[in-house]
Amino acid sequence: MSTANAYLTVRGIDVDVIYKDIKNLHIGVYPPMGRVRVAAPRRLDDDQVRLAVIQRLPWITRQRQQLRAADRQSEREMVVGESHYVWGVRRRLKVVERPGRAHIEIDGDRLILYVPASRSAAQRRKILDGWYREQLRQVIPDLIAKWESKLDVRVPAWNIRRMRTKWGTCNRETRRITFNIELAKKHPDCLEYMAVHEIMHYFERGHGERFTKLMDDAMSDWRSRRDALNAAPLANEAWSNKR
């Protein structure tokens, strides 16, 4: 069955729409980030779908809140054998307790944490957090430079933050792009998609037809990258409201 896709924003909520040869409209809210997807009959247009979503907003909001409040795996204790992801690759943690400066290295399929024995689990998580930030800092400049050239734009500022429900944001006034630190755990293609997505907001505020066209022209496989980004929750994280 052939499908046509639309990408809408309704009251600040991103909505994926798939038009199909079906009789009734169906709305779903999916983990891990509460993405809203609509399967709509072809006889409906974007405005009719938008109205249907608005009418179901109380239910959609409740579903998204339940997803965000759902229990995830226990907070990582930063001990030997735990799984941690780096650029989409699952690695087992090895902890080497020794005096001196704490740092992290990759050795084969292992993520090795060198740390004084006195450091607590919270302190070890902070070390890992800083290491993830550094991974992003190393690759984002070249990535942005690549797309500045391709799109003939300039990204004046960017930063990295821990965000609970968004992979990235764009402030159209300052043109600052913010990346979620969690992107260091995803495949590099996902980070590139997120960079292009946010840069596109320089040209188009919402996620309507024009935004979709811009994304299609710039990155033909953006939908598959987006789906890969949202496909599997990193459930071993203890998400907090701290930005």
Describe the structure.
It is a single chain. The termini are far apart. Helix 3 (121-151) packs across helix 4 and helix 4 crosses helix 6 (222-231). This protein is globular. Strand 10 and strand 11 form a beta hairpin. The longest helix is centred in the middle third of the chain and has 31 residues, at 121-151. The protein has helices at residues 46-55, 57-69, 121-151, 188-200, 209-218, 222-231, and strands at residues 4-10, 13-20, 26-30, 35-41, 83-86, 89-97, 103-107, 110-115, 157-161, 168-171, 176-180. It has 2 domains: 4-69, no CATH class; 83-231, 2-Layer Sandwich (Zincin-like), CATH 3.30.2010.10. It contains 6 helices and 11 strands. The chain is an alpha/beta fold. The strands form 3 sheets. It has a 4-stranded mixed sheet. The protein has a 4-stranded mixed sheet with strand order 5-6-8-7, covered by helices on one side. The relative contact order is 0.13. GO terms for molecular function: hydrolase activity. Keywords: Hydrolase. Pfam families: YgjP-like. Residues 28-231 form the YgjP-like metallopeptidase domain. This is Metal-dependent hydrolase.
